[in-house]
Amino acid sequence: MSLTHDYIKQRLEEKFGEQVSNFEEPYGFFSFEAVKEDNLKVMQFLFDDPVLRFQFLTDLTAVHYPNSKGRELAVVYHLHNLVDNVRIRMKVFTDINTPDVFTATSLYATANWMERETYDFFGVNFVGHPNLKRILNVDEMDYFPMRKEFPLEDQTRIDKDDEMFGRGGSII
Amino acid sequence: MARPVKFNIHPKQADIHDNIAIADMPEGLQGEGYFATSFEKVIGRARMNSLWPLPFATSCCGIEFMATMASHYDLARFGSERLGFTPRQCDLLMVMGTISKKMGPILRQVYLQMAEPRWVLAVGACASSGGIFDTYSVLQGIDQVIPVDVYVPGCPPRPEAILDGVIKIQELALNESLRRRNSEHYKALLGSYGIQ
Ligand code: SF4
């Protein structure tokens, strides 16, 4: 029997009830949302269950939604069942003022660097991470560049033609 | 409409006397069996024609440099036959490509390891000014961390442009006073980059 999306959804709802929600399938990719405090429990369940077996973390990143108050930062986990070749996506949302999410490093060793990257760019504070510091950007950086309040361009430049870089000027 | 191809329709006969550039003799006293001139002129000429470039190629401009170095454009014609891959042997640092902020200290370290006299050529928009990468991770021009002698514009510059930059460096090497590197002015310049 192949692992169907309906089956995964049913198992999750049986186990976690209200704690998991927003099931969707954009482009056929099964996604759901979990309560942020339960992220580890849900992942542990998906990892240990003899049928679900989501034992590989493909990707971990974050998204910034500045307009949804109280749910500004979404941490996205891409999980993969290598035996049945099924991929799912799990999201947890957090307030940008308290961006604390439990680390997945004890479950997936690969989460270590990916959480550092997510911290580096979005400032998500992974509670319990063994070495949470910047990984890609310079250590002296004092902001999280992928958050939308920070403009893409380096605002300290004065010698570039602003019109060419979409800062002020006119667009015809 | 097809463009008529007009290259090489009147091939030139090879003329060895016409093709070899012979440098003019520096000013000096000349007599039978001797020639006297100042060290500055001789050494400048020697340096100019034996620059050892250190290619610091990080991205697309580096590819253009490979063409410059290869047989068609042939950097070796200008006395830069030998590319050194250690800064300690080289006197021309050619920076080609996007230098990220994290790469900045490494570039500076490479520069510091070079012995005087040393020249720096910034090839391409990225090395000169950050180029199209006007963003949080890219150094907005290598002149923020090390002094630059010649900038080559372009994204990427053609090999001819890179050669032109090298020739400009050669002119600097030729005309540079032997005492320049000891001067107060030069020390102040390095001092402004925090280099002793
Ligand atoms: S100047 Fe253009 S070609 Fe050169 S490294 Fe930058 S982006 Fe690449």
Keywords:
heterodimer, A: 172 residues, alpha/beta, Beta Polymerase, domain 2, 5-stranded mixed beta sheet, 3 helices, B: 196 residues, Rossmann fold, 4-stranded parallel beta sheet, two-stranded antiparallel ribbon, 34% helix, flat
Helix content of chain A: 10-25%
Radius of gyration of chain A: 19 Å
Q: How would you spell out the order of helices and strands of chain A? A: HEEHEEEEHE
Task: Give the CATH H-level superfamily of chain A.
Answer: NADH:ubiquinone oxidoreductase Nqo5 subunit
Chemical compounds bound to the protein = iron/sulfur cluster
How many β-strands of chain B, per DSSP? 6
Distance between the termini of chain B: 61 Å
In terms of quaternary structure, the protein is: heterodimer
How far apart, in Å, are the first and last alpha carbons of chain A? 58 Å
Order of helices and strands of chain B: HEEHEHEHEHEHH
Mean pLDDT of chain A: 88
Tally of individual domains of chain B: 1
User: What count of structural domains of chain A?
Assistant: 1
Tell me the CATH topology of chain A: Beta Polymerase, domain 2
Question: What can be said about this structure in brief?
Answer:
Helix content of chain A is 20%, strand content 25%. The longest helix of chain A has 12 residues. The model of chain A has no long low-confidence stretch (mean pLDDT 88).
